[in-house]
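Re: the 467-residue chain
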Amino acid sequence: MKVAVLGGGFAGLAAAIDLQERRHEVVLLERRGVLGGRATSYRDAVSGEDVDNGTHLMVGAYTATRDLMRRAGAEDMLLVQDNLRIDYRDDRGLSSLRCPPLTAPLHLLAGIAGLRLPWRARVSALRLFLAARLGKPPVGLTLDAYLAKTGQSPEARRLLWNPLATAILNESPERASALLFYNVFREAFFESRHASCLMFLRQGLGRLADQLARYFVQRGGVLWRRALAEGLELEGGRVRGVRVSRRAETRDEIRRGTPARPETMAVDAVVAAVPWHAVPELLPEEARGERPFADLPRLGATAILSVEVWLDRVVVDHVMLGLRDEEMEWVFDKGRLFGRTGPPQHLAFIVSAARRILSRPNAELVAAAESALRRYFPPATITRSLVLREPEATFAARPENEALRPGPVTPIGGLYLAGDWTDTGLPATIEGAVRSGFRAAACVEEQAALAGLTERSSVEGLRLQHR
């Protein structure tokens, strides 16, 4: 079958690779020149280092992501913890959630026992463990309501669950879906101790996306960059083609002002791995009002903000630190992750669910990062800074949106959906995106198998008539 995959993010890359490995003729279309979608990076012209559009943290439970990286020979890009460790900094100094090599979930219980928390918070944390292990899924609840229902003390929420949940869900606890937190919690902490270990990329997200694309192309896949899918051609309720505007791709073409080349690609199936709000724009007007397409704009969006700074000396001595009671919630030593330990120190300060500060001037946001540095670390001078805003970094992970997230199959024959916003049971993560891509590819394969069965039945019928 000839399949067009629309969108070169991790969902699209996963679907394209899986389909190509199943021996389909696959064309991957990306409207921009860079791959990775809402999880990408670029090379900083001054420092020469990769800058992510928001540092994405991964855990050992990302089995689909690791499988995709293994296929593409990209596992050496990962820095994986042997045991879960998360370090926090506050006015009392350093505190660590350090889990010993015990069977899950005992490893996390032991880690929480050693974390600097009031005893009341540790006892209430045990209640959450029991609720997540033995209780019913918290369908329809906000995380705030679920934490109250499971008896979590204010200290446990402020010092432990709220920072973790906000980073995982990219949503504040009073708005966030408890079910998504519950699902992540069970996958990460009940399967095995390795499932909860943090995984960091040694290079920018865009480098990983490029490696996946190279693997896809080397195996015979076709990649079109700067190819804007403008709409789908339907016939008899099925997808028959994709209208594409292929814009100048090479530097020479861009410099010469080469105009876009419109064309229509005939296809047997399409995997739309574009953002949720872009799907209806691909469809004819009469199809946009049908479910699930009409519901997609209601998924909303939540922002992530990053402040990248370069310091004249090394003052942060951890790969990742949670900053309690600070506007800048997490800081990552990107230079260390990328294999460089000396000055200038490249730090990334991350704020999840960042709608509250997104409109503030860059100077104020850099000042907030500088304030956190002065509060917790030895003196250092910021020699350079960048502010990156992603207003639509993820769909809004709220309870009311769970019913709006569609599966891969649509009412239009041959059209399948993929993306971290589809019904994966997970929040908007790279793992959710990859799983959705694999699921969409499996649906295309099922369509191909049914078509092959129908074709064989028709041939056998003709043979019988001839006899």
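Residues 430-466 form the longest helix (37 residues).
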